[in-house]
């Protein structure tokens, strides 16, 4: 059973998805990830997408640490039930509805969101093993137009997986390996940014 590491709901136990259909994020990886996001200054008040959410552990951790609104997107029925339970746990601890759950495919959700335009500050993607490289690239392409200019995208993959193919509108700015897990960090890309030399391991100046 997992837990929320820090924030207003820190220490609360989280339900886990039974079986091996999902790949839980370890506490070590989660702590490193959120320490990095907090150093970027993007977490407080953020609107967050947790795509391929699994148990929703990343999304509810974001809510505990100050995100304004979090949407967990998951298709598998067992995982959806766990997301709903974990969202309820965190919402009760926070005293407000910070986390909501959408049952369905990620691509369908993103296509429906396209009508609303930009608005998301952070997006987590922990795609399932069966998703192809082409499928992941297509999902990232649907996500890119929905992001705020200074948003951060985090893709969690097995260390044995190749780097995602970043679509037009997204560029990678950092990579971190933790045991068998690799985290890829990306941000919105614009023609103006392509002409600038940006330091690695920090978000660039898109939209500034």
From TrEMBL:
- Looking at the keywords, is Transmembrane present? no
Task: Cite the GO molecular-function annotations of the record.
Answer: methyltransferase activity
Q: Which residues form a coiled coil?
A: none
- Provide the residue span(s) of the region labelled Disordered: 181-208
InterPro entries named among the record's database cross-references: RNA_MeTrfase_RsmD, SAM-dependent_MTases_sf
Task: Alphabetically list the UniProt keywords.
Answer: Methyltransferase, Transferase
Which portions of the chain have biased composition (kind: Low complexity)? 196-208
Gene3D superfamilies referenced in this protein's UniProt entry, alphabetically: Vaccinia Virus protein VP39 (3.40.50.150)
Task: Please provide the Gene Ontology terms (biological process) for this protein.
Answer: rRNA methylation
Q: Does the keyword Methyltransferase apply?
A: yes
Protein name as annotated = DNA methylase
């Amino acid at each position: 059973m997992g837990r929320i590491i820090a924030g207003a709901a820190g220490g609360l136990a989280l339900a886990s998805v039974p079986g091996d259909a999902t790949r839980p994020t370890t506490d070590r990886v989660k702590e490193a990830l959120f320490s990095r996001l907090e150093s970027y200054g993007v977490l407080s008040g953020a609107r967050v997408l947790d795509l391929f959410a699994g148990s929703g552990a990343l999304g509810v951790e974001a809510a505990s640490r100050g995100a304004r609104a979090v949407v967990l997107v998951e298709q598998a029925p067992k995982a959806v039930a766990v997301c709903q339970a974990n969202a309820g746990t965190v919402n009760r601890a926070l005293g407000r509805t910070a986390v909501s759950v959408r049952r369905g495919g990620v691509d369908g959700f993103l296509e429906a969101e396209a009508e609303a335009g930009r608005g998301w500050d952070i997006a987590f993607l922990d795609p399932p093993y069966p998703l192809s490289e082409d499928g992941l690239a297509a999902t990232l392409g649907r996500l890119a137009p929905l992001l705020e200019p200074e948003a951060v995208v985090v893709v969690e993959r097995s260390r044995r997986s190749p780097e995602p193919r970043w679509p037009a509108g997204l560029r990678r700015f950092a990579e971190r390996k933790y045991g068998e897990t690799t985290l890829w960090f990306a941000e919105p890309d614009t023609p103006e940014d392509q002409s600038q030399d940006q330091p690695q391991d920090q978000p660039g100046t898109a939209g500034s």
